[in-house]
Amino acid sequence: MKIPGFIEDFISLLYPRVCAACGNSLFKHEEIICTYCLYHLPKTNYHLTEDSPLDKVFWGRAQLTNTAALYTFNKKSKVQHLIHQLKYKGRIDVGIHLGKILGTDLAKADAFKDVTKVIPVPLHPEKQRKRGYNQSEQFAIGLARAMNIEMDAYSFIRTVDTSTQTRKSRFARWENVKEIFKVTTPEKIANCHILLVDDVITTGATLESAAHILLAVEGVRVSVACIGYARD
Q1: What single-letter DSSP state applies at residue 112?
Q2: Tens digit of each residue's pLDDT (9 = 90 or more) over 162-194
């Protein structure tokens, strides 16, 4: 049943609808992110580029099929604010919405048309219990819906609760994550082209470690995608 306009207006007074990127009020036809931000947020379009800056992050480190990043990530930017809303403010709708945006683009890209499964980088169960959700899983849900493929959050788990990666060196980040993941059901991912997703890629250490575990399963190929790529 459609809510009458005056009731919608009253609800908006109590719970104002604002853009998750800039904080300005949304118009009725806008969802999550305002039209201005949608057009001005720094999309990378790496999925359309051979040997992109994100591809090069993993050269010699992990044998990835393709890489994709929705936005370029910079500190104190609107992209950082979006991810902060998703990660710390309970805005799971932001993650799903961003996943749909990137997923719509990837569904049109030849390099991603044979992806069969989306797998989010898992949180340790204790950390996920405290937060209430895995932000990367919300992004994965949106990607999978837009690409019309399966999202699998059960076949790949984190077995060790690592310390935060913030302010660690590249080597320290690798040491922090090199043996923390496990495939629980290899038969469910064998011979799949997996899209492994995370919220932000900086050094790529987490995704590198995760990709090596997944690539050890027979016939698996791995591509990666993220909301934001933090270029040096």
Answers
A1: G
A2: 655 455 555 555 455 557 899 999 999 999 999
* Cα-Cα-Cα-Cα dihedral sign, residues 83, 117, 124, 68: negative
Which two structure tokens, joined as six digits, stand for 34?
């305002």
> What 3-state class would DSSP assign to 45?
coil
pLDDT of 69-83, one tens digit each? 999 999 999 999 999
* Cα distance between residue 97 and residue 99, in whole Å: 5
In one-letter notation, the amino acid at residue 169 is S
In the chain, where do the E strands start and end?
67-72, 117-120, 150-151, 156-158, 181-183, 193-201, 221-229
Non-local CB neighbours of 37 within 8 Å, separated by 6+ positions: 19, 21, 22, 78
What's the order of all strands across the beta sheet hosting 117-120?
A: 67-72, 221-229, 193-201, 117-120, 150-151
β 67-72/193-201 pair status? unpaired
Show the tokens assigned to 191.
């011979």
Cα(47)–Cα(54) distance, rounded to whole angstroms? Answer: 10
Note the pTM of the prediction, 2 decimals.
0.88
Give the whole-angstrom CA distance, residue 177 versus residue 196. 16
The confidence score (pLDDT) of residue 40 equals 98
Q: Which domains does the chain have, with CATH numbers?
A: 1-40 (no CATH), 42-229 (3.40.50.2020)
pLDDT averaged over the chain? 89
The full DSSP string for 115-130 is --EEEEPPPPHHHHHH
